[in-house]
TrEMBL record:
Phylogenetic lineage: Bacteria, Pseudomonadati, Bacteroidota, Flavobacteriia, Flavobacteriales
Coiled-coil regions listed in the entry: none
Domain Tr-type G: 8-277
Organism in which the protein naturally occurs: Flavobacterium jejuense
Main location: cytoplasm
Name of the molecule in the record: Peptide chain release factor 3
Keywords: Cytoplasm, GTP-binding, Nucleotide-binding, Protein biosynthesis
InterPro entries: EF-G-like_DII, EFG_III/V, G_TR_CS, P-loop_NTPase, PrfC, RF3_C, RF3_dom_3_sf, RF3_GTP-bd
Function: Increases the formation of ribosomal termination complexes and stimulates activities of RF-1 and RF-2. It binds guanine nucleotides and has strong preference for UGA stop codons. It may interact directly with the ribosome. The stimulation of RF-1 and RF-2 is significantly reduced by GTP and GDP, but not by GMP.
Sites where the protein binds GTP: 17-24, 85-89, 139-142
């Protein structure tokens, strides 16, 4: 198979959801279809158990699992499917945001009873901003839940999507009879048995046929007919172009736990989901089927063994092929590097491979050369765009608690920031360091890892900030900018790239600043830096 055909058969995506909606269960069922695992229960949940925020064993366990499940790959109907893991826990949301820069599409899982939840809203917002194609899977149909139409409304309202159902439930919960597959025009009857033969679907192109009454009962059959009529009336026909542009989102219903509606989802997914997509760089748009290799680092994971400080950098291949022992340019450092043991990922294991293709993820052993967002090429001096830092939501001063270990502390902080565990801001006024995180849990992770991996100790002190706003003056020499810097002196710092940041203490303060200094632009992600 030529390398262009290899690329065309790749589907790289992420599953996102609010915790407990069924992401792990769905992932596992998808892997079962690919024959990548043999039994249910093989995919370990990477959830942090409730109430375990102070349990360091739990944090370590989570880190271990997230290396193992960072990329789960399998072959299904000759397509190479790469599922990128996205942590559901909100304290690790930044990790998920970054992973979304490496996916070509996503599946959003929603719990039929709970509807659209907070974490789903946040993640879908990022997908919408990036025009990532989205398929919605409404899960747990074996339980009582919201009415299908109400739920579709909620998805449109809360997530700002334009949906079109490609399947529709026949009843729900106790009365759940099965699913009418609008896409394939067939019916899948629910038997509540996860070992059910997956081929057992009944083709049904004419739902007016009396046979439907015999199969699901007259009442359910009539209701389905009425509901489908409404579906065809209210929702637009599926249009692949609109889906690929992020303008239309197909919806499937099912029950991951019962392996119900999953095969239908997967079969449709491999047909409609995008092959590896082109990606923008600071100089040009890069197409996957270009002959030369390019890729970028979207995730860095520290080795679990504290004695060896090497890490794994996860690289999404944007174009061409990545080959073992071939020299590639690390653009930011301007140096050529070779990799003798690039890892590729299959289901739950990783293996050293000679060649990987655009769309794939390779794991490279790293001794501290990479930062998140770094670009690798065959020599071209370009940088991929769009791996932003989002404003943290918690801010604390970090203090050295062991003066003899200040070097270790500095190195530790530096490396943990490169990994993207948190963001560091250095205050302009006095050089003090402030750590910003998405969740409070990160402070414990940092303290624990500094001590165990770097032998350094730290303490924290509250820093009264509410949001980090990246600052870009329209004119850095004008009086307004000089006054802004004078007045806000105490709240100004620099991020790790030296970019000026305003650490605002309230929404009010942000609004006042915007009114008073209109020529000083404030940004809530660092995206503008690279766009
Ligand atoms: P997550 O990764 O999105 O956080 O969710 P996960 O798959 O772990 O699922 C959360 C809970 O929901 C699990 O139950 C799981 O068994 C259940 N679940 C998933 N899909 C379905 C479904 O289609 N129907 C029903 N009824 N339940 C479903 P748990 O009790 O929290 O965990 P476990 O002890 O079963 O592992």
């Amino acid at each position: 198979m030529g390398f262009k055909d290899e690329i065309k058969r790749r589907r790289t995506f992420g599953i996102i959801s609010h915790p407990d909606a069924g992401k792990t269960t769905l992932t596992e069922k998808l892997l079962l279809f690919g024959g990548a695992i043999q039994e249910a229960g093989a995919v370990k949940s990477n959830k942090i158990k409730k109430g375990a925020t102070s349990d360091f064993m739990e944090i370590e366990r989570q880190r271990g699992i997230s290396v193992a499940t960072s990329v789960l790959a399998f072959i299904y109907k000759d397509k190479k499917i790469n599922i990128l893991d996205t942590p559901g826990h909100k304290d690790f949301a930044e990790d998920t945001f970054r992973t979304l820069t490496a996916v070509d599409s996503v599946i959003v899982v929603i719990d039929v009873a709970k509807g659209v939840e907070e974490q789903t809203e946040k993640l879908v917002k990022v997908c919408r901003m990036r025009k990532i194609p989205i398929i919605v899977f409404i899960n747990k149909l074996d339980r009582e839940g919201k009415d299908a139409f109400d739920l579709l409304d909620e998805v449109e309202q809360k997530l700002g999507l334009k949906v079109t159902p490609l399947s529709f439930p026949i009843g729900m919960g106790y009365d759940f009879k099965g699913i009418y597959n609008i896409w394939e025009k067939n019916i899948n009857l629910f038997e509540g048995d996860s070992r059910k033969n997956i081929e057992e679907t009944i083709a049904f192109s004419d739902i007016e046929s009396k046979e439907l009454d015999t199969i699901v009962g007259e009442k359910a059959a009539n209701r389905l007919r009425e509901e489908l009529e409404l579906v065809y009336e209210i929702y637009p026909d599926f249009d692949r172009e609109a889906y690929l542009k992020g303008d239309l989102q197909p919806v499937f219903f099912g029950s991951a736990l019962n392996n119900f509606g999953v095969r239908e989802l997967l079969d449709c997914f491999i047909e409609i989901a995008p092959t590896p997509r082109p990606k923008d760089s600071d100089t040009r748009l890069v197409n996957p089927d270009e002959d030369v290799f390019s890729g970028f680092v979207f995730k860095i994971h520290a080795n679990m063994d504290p004695k060896h400080r090497d890490r794994i950098a996860f690289v999404k291949i944007v174009s061409g092929t990545f080959e073992k022992n071939k020299p590639y340019l690390h653009v930011r450092q301007g140096k050529k590097m070779k990799f003798s043991s690039p890892n590729a990922f299959f289901a739950e294991k990783k293996e050293i491979v000679d060649i990987s293709y655009a769309g794939d993820i390779v794991g490279l052993h790293d001794t501290g050369n990479f930062k998140i967002g770094d670009t690798l090429t065959e020599g071209e001096g370009m940088n991929f765009k769009g791996i932003p830092s989002f404003s943290p939501e918690h801010f604390r001063y970090i203090n050295n608690a062991d003066p003899l270990k200040s070097k270790q502390l500095e190195k530790g902080i530096d490396q943990l920031m490169d990994e993207g565990v948190a963001q560091l801001f250095t205050l302009e006024m006095n050089g003090r360091k402030v750590i910003g995180t998405v969740g409070a849990l990160q402070y414990e992770v940092i303290q624990y890892r500094l001590e165990h991996e770097y032998g350094a100790k730290c303490t924290y002190e509250n820093f009264p900030a509410y949001k980090a706003c990246w600052v870009k003056p329209k004119d850095s020499k004008n009086e307004e900018f000089a006054e802004f810097k004078r007045v806000k002196q105490k709240f100004l710092g620099h991020d790790k790239y030296g970019q000026l940041v305003f650490l605002a203490d309230s929404e009010f303060s942000i609004q006042m600043t915007q009114q008073k200094y209109p020529s000083v632009e404030l940004f809530f992600t660092s995206d503008f830096r690279i766009t």
